[in-house]
Amino acid sequence: MNRKNQLPPNEIAYKIRSGHLPSLSRMITRVESNRLEDQNYANDVLNELLPYTGNSLRIGISGIPGSGKSTFMEAFGTKLCEQGMKIAVLAIDPSSPYSGGSILGDSTRMEKLTQHPNAFVRPSPSNGRHGGLHSKTFETMLLCEAAGYDIVFIETVGVGQSEGEVRELVDFFMLLTIARSGDDLQGIKRGILELVDYIIVNKCDGELIRESKQTAISLKHSLQLIKPPTKEWSQRVITCSSINGNGLDQIQNDINQFFDHIKQNDFLSQRRVDQKKNWFHRSIKQTILHSIYSDETVRNILLDQEIKFLNNEIGLSEASKKVLNSIYR
Ligand SMILES: Nc1nc2c(ncn2[C@@H]2O[C@H](COP(=O)(O)OP(=O)(O)O)[C@@H](O)[C@H]2O)c(=O)[nH]1
Ligand SMILES: [Mg+2]
């Protein structure tokens, strides 16, 4: 990218708001970049765009690899687009730190959705080795909002701890799962059930119909013991097939009901305040980490303290203080 010819922040912000896709894509790349100058520029552009954010439905969808997240998004997203809605899908892909490529190389690409003029599909690598989010997923979502998308979906591979991160970013959180036997159901941890507003048992078609319905009933039982994450909203479980489309209408109705509910009760505005607060704290932490690892003097002091600590020459709190002092020297 030619940074000498870069547009002033207000101009690129205007282009993004006007729906200019290359500008949106380029900004996401800048947002995700580790270069300080990219980050500063991205922050300036985000500042310009902030007044135009907040109008989308922020929806998280998580599930183990192979549960059908991409196939579901292809079917459900296309359905919404055909109704005239504008849909952004941020697909966070667990990338291998060794090959730099995707672990799930053969994973379903949302070809139909990608080609729909109302859709914007953006794959990003996750920061974690096995999945989870990208550290800038929230910023990317804000950019999509400013670009006028009605719904932003954040699709992630569920790896146990990443669900908590997704929950912090979204208004509505869905778990996508498949028919399981009784023992396997234990695999869906209580901790995850406490985070989700909605569970979809996907692949309820062909030979799996009976088992899928049974799984849904078992999950409903498990949920009775759980305190729902959204006040006055009882978590729901539904079966669906992303191949034949059964259940998709119901899911759309339920999502509408959910948002009507949280808008009426001010729960949405509270959730948005929490999301912004979390964003603030995440950014501060990232800035501090960045200032440690990007500054050569600080980094040298850090490595020096590490050696002393390993040799038992210095205690942990003294070493931390030395590193901190070097940041604020
Ligand atoms: N029968 C059936 N197969 C499905 C359904 N949804 C996804 N699949 C298949 O399951 C496999 C994994 O789907 P994919 O969307 O890539 O899963 P992801 O890893 O969660 O994104 C693919 O072979 C899909 O064709 C469904 O509703 N019914
Ligand atoms: Mg996928």
TrEMBL record:
InterPro entries: GTPase_ArgK, P-loop_NTPase. Its EC number is 3.6.5.-. Keywords: Hydrolase. GO terms for molecular function: GTP binding; GTPase activity. The keyword DNA damage does not apply. GO terms for cellular component: cytoplasm. It is an enzyme of class 3 (hydrolase). NCBIfam families: lao (TIGR00750), PRK09435.1 (NF006958). Belongs to the SIMIBI class G3E GTPase family. ArgK/MeaB subfamily. This is Methylmalonyl Co-A mutase-associated GTPase MeaB.
